[in-house]
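Q: What residues go here?
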């Protein structure tokens, strides 16, 4: 850690610029924008916690799912990537065992870390995530102490970029570096964050989001053993592909979609049990087709279709990672399109049941196909039913694509992102 004045000076040094470019890329103004955010955070930290003499700077990326739409909860494979929208933080050790967090848009958190048990009053609040992460890391044998932090998030909420996972991993990274010399593996941080979200916050989720935020870059994850997933970073210089990664927010249906999301996992697991397995990964596609006639009377047709999606998407996620490893971008894009079509036709998560008039995601996919066929790729992004799609767009088609999407869904609907190699990071400054 260093004084806030020293950190401010370091951000303006050549080494500081190189560190900012490592996080935010080389696009014009990216490093300067990152520096301005951290300088603002340092001033906020000084005002909020004036007694702190030394601090450190942190950055944790959001993530985008690239392959494996709704496969993780049935022990399948996924492909994800960290993006250049992040949570930035300034943090310092506290004199007591209290976590004090100033986060933009939220009331200040003051959490007594000597009360590790989940608090019902904190359920579905950021404080639950903070307490859960700290408690879980302590249970795993790591040192946990009080800290003071100011946070600023650019990870878009409701976009499928995992703003909650980025927040959780930020807390974990602060504990890792302030108290454990950065020795906790990224996958261990991710598991602690998932535990906090499941058992403290109250949201069932897999491990993909937290893992991608913690590890960075393209990440292939195999959940065959859900308690110990196999995580492999896939090295690829995405900027060299000439493609832009665009997330399009289609807006649309704003009702509670929790039941729709839960039905996907529920129907897949019901089908798995009918096939004699706990998850679909424990059965086979051939067995599913062999038993389809009897399954229709039991689990129903939609459940069978969703199970078929699982088997095809699980295979595709592995093939996408393999294509990236060998630099076969054409095959990667073909598989992305195939994934999107499977989500639309088999998984059926492109608009909510009973809301047939409003189909922003299918419309965005159809128009994307008309522009990008033979040149790019497009698919539903995240949980589906409403919200966003993902597109890989060649540079020469980008102006046309952005203009068309903005005409359909509004001037603020498109977000052009970069794939970020760095995961959860404490900035290394002189």
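A:
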């Amino acid at each position: 850690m260093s004084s806030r004045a020293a950190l401010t000076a370091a951000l303006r040094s050549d080494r500081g610029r190189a560190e900012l470019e490592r996080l935010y890329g080389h696009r014009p103004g990216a490093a300067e924008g990152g520096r301005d955010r951290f300088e603002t955070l340092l001033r906020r930290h000084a005002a909020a916690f004036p007694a702190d003499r030394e601090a450190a700077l942190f950055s944790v990326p959001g993530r985008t799912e690239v392959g494996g739409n709704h496969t993780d909860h049935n022990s399948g494979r996924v492909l994800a990537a960290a993006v250049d929208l992040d949570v930035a933080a300034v943090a310092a050790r506290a004199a007591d065992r209290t976590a004090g967090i100033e986060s933009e848009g939220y009331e200040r958190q003051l959490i007594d870390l000597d009360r590790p048990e989940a608090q019902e009053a904190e359920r579905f609040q950021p404080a639950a995530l903070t307490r859960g992460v700290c408690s879980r890391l302590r249970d795993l044998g790591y040192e946990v102490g009080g800290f003071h932090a100011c946070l600023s998030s650019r990870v878009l909420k409701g976009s499928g970029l995992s703003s909650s996972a980025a927040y959780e991993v930020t807390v974990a990274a602060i504990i890792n570096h302030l108290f454990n010399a950065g020795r906790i593996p990224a996958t261990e941080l991710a598991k602690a964050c998932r535990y906090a979200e499941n058992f403290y916050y109250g949201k069932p989720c897999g491990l993909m989001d937290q893992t991608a935020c913690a590890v960075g870059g393209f990440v292939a994850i195999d959940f065959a053993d859900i308690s110990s997933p196999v995580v492999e970073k896939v090295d690829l210089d995405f900027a060299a592909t000439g493609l832009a990664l665009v997330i399009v927010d289609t807006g649309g249906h704003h009702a509670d979609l929790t039941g729709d999301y839960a039905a996907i996992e529920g129907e897949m697991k019901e089908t798995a049990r009918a096939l004699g397995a706990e998850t679909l990964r424990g059965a086979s596609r051939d067995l599913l087709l062999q038993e389809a006639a009897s399954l229709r009377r039991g689990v129903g047709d939609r459940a069978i279709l969703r199970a078929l999606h699982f088997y095809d998407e699980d295979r595709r996620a592995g093939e996408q990672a393999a294509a990236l490893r060998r630099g076969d971008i054409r095959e990667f894009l073909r598989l992305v399109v195939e994934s999107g079509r499977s989500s639309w036709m088999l998984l059926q998560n492109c608009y909510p049941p009973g809301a047939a008039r409003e189909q922003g995601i299918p419309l965005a996919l159809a128009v994307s196909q008309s522009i990008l066929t033979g040149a790019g790729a497009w698919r539903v992004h995240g949980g589906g039913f409403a919200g966003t799609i993902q597109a890989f767009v060649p540079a020469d088609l980008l102006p046309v694509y952005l203009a068309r999407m903005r005409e359909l869904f509004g001037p603020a609907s498109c977000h052009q992102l970069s794939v970020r190699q760095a995961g959860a990071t404490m900035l290394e400054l002189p």
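A: Context that may help when evaluating the design: The mean pLDDT is 91. The chain has two domains: 4-234+422-426, 240-417.
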